[in-house]
From TrEMBL:
Residue ranges of every copy of the 7 transmembrane helices usually fused to an inactive transglutaminase domain listed in the record: 57-260
Biased composition (Polar residues): 305-318
Protein name: 7 transmembrane helices usually fused to an inactive transglutaminase
Region listing for Disordered, in residue ranges: 296-318
Domain of life: Archaea
Transmembrane segments: 37-58, 70-90, 110-130, 142-159, 171-189, 201-218
One Pfam family named in its UniProt record: 7TM_transglut
UniProt-listed InterPro entries: 7TM_transglut
Keywords noted in UniProt: Membrane, Transmembrane, Transmembrane helix
Upper classification of the organism: Archaea, Methanobacteriati, Methanobacteriota, Stenosarchaea group, Halobacteria
Keyword Coiled coil recorded: no
Organism: Natronorubrum daqingense
Length: 318
């Protein structure tokens, strides 16, 4: 049963005016809306105030935030990976992993970064397969992977120092990415034993694609510099991430998968989605004036985002 207290617009529409009960419903709807939006608005306002304070206290002509560039790259990388997962539909090994590993590609270039990432991954995967017959516990298995990866990274740097390989990356830059890559190999191998090659190979491939895309974007120095020097945009980026996260639209991969629902036309899928979104934008206003308006979906297919949003409203029996 729908709980109108969770939907302020429906509560206002169905409540009407002129009675104590109606007034109570409106108050409840307003209280629910305040409890939902006030903390987020307060957080955004705090970030805006912080940005304004930075604007007045720092001389941005001297690029005072340049030593902290990596944190702004992290900010954008997080948004990129989130969009790739929730809107494009890329299936990756986690969120933090692709973000962290993308910094290798930014610092060393895409080619040598991928060389290092691939070597560490294959080294850790090979170590896992060697240790698997001994049925080690998780702690000792991961410990063994980290040990071998550490020796491998050391060898990589020694070869760089002696001129065998180009000296592209320092030890600090690859520390966390190397650990994450070892974890990737462990998870890949475990999934491989449970599901076969196809599923983990696809997931790993999309993970690499997301890493490359994130690295290509955060490697744009002009973009990152502009964000650093424009503190007013920091709250906008966070707000954009929250907004995109609340939208349960079809993912790009779902357009391709269910194109037959739109008569086999991918362009038809896009047009239907745009028309549905334009209609849904007017629904709250039309409800307030008493119109019997409801949201529409571009197709009968329930998108993964909407499915996740719907199921999250119901508690698990576990």
């Amino acid at each position: 049963m729908t709980n109108f207290a969770d939907d302020p617009v429906m509560s206002l529409r169905n409540g009407g005016v002129g009675s104590t009960a109606d007034g109570s419903r409106i108050s409840s709807a307003l209280a629910s809306a305040f409890a939902k939006y006030a903390p987020l608005l307060g957080l955004l306002a705090t970030i805006v105030i912080l940005g304004v304070e930075f604007r007045y206290q720092l001389d941005f002509a001297q690029q005072p935030l340049e030593p902290y560039r990596i944190f702004f790259e992290l900010l954008i990388a997080g948004l990129i990976i989130a969009v790739l997962r929730s809107k494009v539909g890329l299936v990756t090994y986690g969120m933090f992993g692709p973000i962290i590993i993308s910094f290798i590609l930014v610092e060393s270039g895409i080619f040598w970064g991928l060389v290092l990432f691939t070597n560490v991954f294959l080294l850790a995967l090979g170590t896992y397969l060697i240790l698997e017959p001994f049925r080690l516990g998780t702690a000792h298995r991961i410990g063994g992977l980290v040990m071998v990866v550490s020796i491998g990274i050391t060898s990589f740097h020694v070869m760089s120092d002696t001129g065998v390989l180009p000296q592209q990356i320092d030890a600090l830059q690859v520390f966390f990415p190397a650990i994450v890559t070892a974890w990737y190999a462990d998870r890949f191998a475990r999934e491989l034993s449970e599901r076969g090659w196809r599923a983990p190979a696809v997931r790993f491939s999309w993970t690499v694609v997301s890493i490359i895309i994130a690295a290509a974007i955060i490697g744009n120095e002009t973009l990152i510099t502009w964000i650093m020097d424009t503190p007013e945009t920091w709250a906008v980026i966070l707000a954009a991430n929250v907004y995109l996260g609340t939208q349960s639209s079809m993912r790009v991969k779902e357009y391709l998968r269910f194109s037959n629902v739109y008569g086999g036309s991918r362009l038809g899928a896009v047009v239907s989605t745009i028309r549905a979104k334009l209609h849904n934008l007017t629904v709250p206003v039309r409800r307030l004036v008493g119109s019997d308006a409801s949201r529409v979906e571009p197709s009968e297919v329930m998108s993964m985002n909407r499915r996740n949003s719907t199921t999250s409203r119901f508690p698990s029996d576990d």
